[in-house]
Fold this protein.
Amino acid sequence: MDGQKMSSKRSAAPAAAASDRGVVTRRASRKGTVPPRVETGAERLVRCMEAHGVEYIFGLSGGAAMPIFDALVDSKIKLILTRHEQGASHMADGYARATGKPGVVLVTSGPGATNTVTGLLTALMDSVPMIVLTGQTPTFNLGKDAFQEADVTGITYPVVKHSYLVTKVNDIPRVVDEAFYLASTGRPGPILIDLPKDVTSAPCTAPDHDGVRIPGYVVPGRADTDVLEAAAAAITKSKRPVLYVGHGAVISGAGAAIAQLSEKLQAPVVNTLLGKGAVDETGPMHLGMLGMHGTAYANKAVEACDLIMAIGARWDDRITGRISEFCANATRIHIDVDPAEFNKTVTSHVQLLGDARLVVEDLLPLVGRLDTKPWLAQCAAWRKAYPLHYPTRGKALRAQHVLDRVNTLTDGKALFTTDVGQHQMWAAQFIRTRANRMWLSSGGAGTMGYGFPSAIGAQFAKPKTPVWCVVGDGGFQMTMCELATAAIHKLPVKVLIINNNYLGMVRQWQELFFDNRLSGVDLEGNPDFVKLARAYGVKGFYIRKPSDVDRVIKQAIKYNDGPCVIEAVVVKEDNVFPMIPAGAGYREMLIERPKGKLEKPEGST
Amino acid sequence: MTGTNHIPALGVTANTLHTVSIITNDHPGVLVRIALVFARRGYNIESLAVSPGAREGFARMTITSRGDAQNTEQILKQLKKLIDVVYITDHRDKAPVEVEIALVKLRAARAARTDILRIVDNFESQVVDDEEDTLMLRLTGTSAELDDCLGALRPYGVEELIRSGKIVMDSGASNFTHLLGGAS
Ligand SMILES: Cc1ncc(C[n+]2csc(CCOP(=O)(O)OP(=O)(O)O)c2C)c(N)n1
Ligand SMILES: [Mg+2]
């Protein structure tokens, strides 16, 4: 294997878990024949993972990681073998977003490790706690172009919150403790631990490690009182406030406090793609998603507000459009746990450094009801004038129709993941998320291939929750090999493929901004996804016409013996609206398909 | 366009020289992480000096780079965000003690030597190697003093030059040692 001879199989003596003192006793079961031996670095690593409450490790094996895979044989941690390391990284991400606990990945060196880079970027961009363990060539081979050697810490510096190359076996307990602490505190993020094979094979004699101490690493909690007072004073003057809620609110569990604040102030709420679910989107104060493909009424409110308060949101370019015009005359308040986000793109008048939940809770007693009656009436009028809509007549099947019905029939009880593209934006518009951590989508990185594996991770995390993933025909094909993973674990994930036979979002841009000169977007050659599912022993359904929609969704909801694939064959050329072209101002929002040609957008895609 | 609510894009920056001091963990890879923060934003590190600090396990760096105040502020925050960075300070509004050293090798014919030695006499300098055709000098001073001295030496033919990069330290009591923990 991997060009090397592997050592002979371990003794057949009954396996027993490592004892607390780190002395492995299983081979000494026949009294006196074999002296107890000190546990290996890999065994210690696994024991540390257990101590951190790890339930699942998602991974794919290989030479340099073999000691760790071996140590997992005797562990209560369940190893989920994936079909590709990218899948493993998104599964861990889905697990983490669904629970708030770090997801763990284990892969081998070289190509195994590089296959997780997209997963690391995805997790870093969206502040997801994740631990990626990579096998590495033995320390004596480092830098010698050894078989499957890659400078993995070097390759991944820009896509991790922090990383370690462990060169001393006795560092393992400290490194693992630090990794878990760093992954899940402050602004969460992915941590990579590169583990040379000689290190994981060596005897580990380190004493128990306790008390993480990372000089200079500060986890912000409550905001300063004087800044809270400044924020309250600004809020008190507002007549047209908007609360703009992002992923930070989901991560800190600030939803209940924000709902209270909204109620108390009588201020409407909008959320970002990743903020969905922090505050119930079906509530009367909620205007839905803002930004590039947000609802027209959310965007009108943002355009006209006199005060906007970002709660765990980072004024990203999908939100702001042309920055110089974004809420230029409004008072801007920013709550963030990461001080580097302040004044990064949009400047703000008041900056509240702290945990979103604690900051909003501390703000509550400092503010009172605002005179927003006319403002709320205006927002209601916009909601009425510009509802989300789609053509309902005719025989053509539309993605929006399917998603609208999935939303209704799942009744707020299901967790949704999405892939990236038109289907993602339609899902964001039509799936109204009611609870925290029930909506998982790759926002910052926009990673195609994320949707399906993240649903698998979420389903492992929440076995009782119905999990749906909404994917495009393009993105699904990037990680669809994980059908095997979902099938063998009989995970009842419902894979809804919005099949438009196009890389639809890019086609939309080419249609609108490039004279409909289509280039590299036709997915001619797509498989029959239902037949493909069946080849994996997975149940498959087609939705071909509007009259199939309800029947098939209900069948899928009832089917829980394993995964199912629902291929919705939708109209090929449909566009997502509303749309604020990249880099344009809010007043340039397109509510419908414009006549004629549009100028090429200033912003990036 | 009001232009008041945002940070101007990179590339349209004023050319101010910034000097920062950074206390980091003394690990392999720390320098790469720091360099990437600058490189990703298209900033050039103008000078860099690294050494172990007073406390074991920590390194200290002085970095100078050019850019406008706001983008530099963002770089400082991104540097602070690195887990290996324990403390960082911008010397913008302070007058730290600063020093730099240079070694310079000149093509120095006999005839020019008197002139050269007269020039460097105005600076803190020492002849460290005196050969048939070349002269090596060690210059010490502020970076500006070194600039002046080297400017004056240029006409005589500079063969080789290395500057240590500026190193700086704020005067008065230290304000970060408590962050390093343990015994001082
Ligand atoms: C890995 C990756 N490659 C390329 C892109 C650029 N991209 C964004 S959306 C999109 C089209 C996605 O097509 P599909 O999955 O069929 O979804 P649709 O837009 O048709 O709903 C592409 C290519 C991306 N986001 N991620
Ligand atoms: Mg498609």
